[in-house]
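Lab notebook: predicted structure, single chain.

Context: the supervisor wants predicted structures on file for every construct in the current expression panel, including those that have not yet been purified. This is the next one on the list. No modifications to the sequence; it matches the entry in the shared construct table.
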Amino acid sequence: MCGIVTAIARRNIVPVLLEGLRKLEYRGYDSAGLAVLKDGKLQRLRAVGRVAELAAQADATHLSAEIGIAHTRWATHGVPSERNAHPHISAGLAVVHNGIIENFEELRTQLRAKGYEFTSETDTEAIAHLLHDTLKTTPDLFEAVRITLGQLIGAYAIGVVSEAEPNRAIVARKGSPLLLGIGEDGHYAASDTAALLQVTRKVVYLEDGDVAELTLDGYRVTLADGTPVERPVNISSLSADAVELGKYRHYMQKEIFEQPQALGNTLEMIAGGGGISPQLFGADAVGHLRRHPPRADPRLRHQLPLRLHRPLLARIRRQDPVHRRDRLRIPLP
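Prediction complete. Output recorded below exactly as produced.
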């Protein structure tokens, strides 16, 4: 699952982009890259492997800029390699993309007929060339992005910067997550709130079809048809530790061992803050739950506004396997 970070601010945003990518490592990836505008010119770095390798390149080149995009890639179209890593460039613009474009083969064929050359196996490069082609007749970057997206079939979250318009970045989403960050020194976008906690807790969650423009002084959001729209500003309460590995060897292990806490938090929200202990779930709860199933446990029975039922597994197997939307099943050993 790919990750995106976009930034425009009155500061060097390269460390922000790199730290944002580190916070998105839990999503899984095989390569990483970034593109920034420095003195009106695109500079791109890409690396196969860890974000640390990309950061080493940035340090070695003393890269600095006030606007840029960054990406961690999980290979879908094409093998993990530097040439398939994002961002992808077409002339003076760069694109990062999370998602899958279902009609990219048709787009590649059309664009090759117009003289565009492809250097990667990805569907994302088709977006970059298609946008460049659209800019020939629609020179405004925001409008060109909006028109380009209307030709895509599939899911996407994208970030775009262009040498022709170095004072703004364009982002959009459909089917893939993307949110904006409102900082004191600039504006940001990312696939996850965790990537932006370093600069702000004020976030705007984009909805499907939204297209947004980020500048130093503000942002605007429109629907896919260009209609202006307001999205509420939220104050994130996410803990910065939520995506840290901590004592765990890898993120899969972290997710497994945090399931009891996650389930307890979910049920507590349903119960209206009743203080449900995560010790009721997980490996440590096996003995307790065998002796005291949820129906008999007053901590659950009195705190949750739900009817608790304990059917036998053998009985469930004989029933209709379709799960109802209003029913939560917790399998117990």
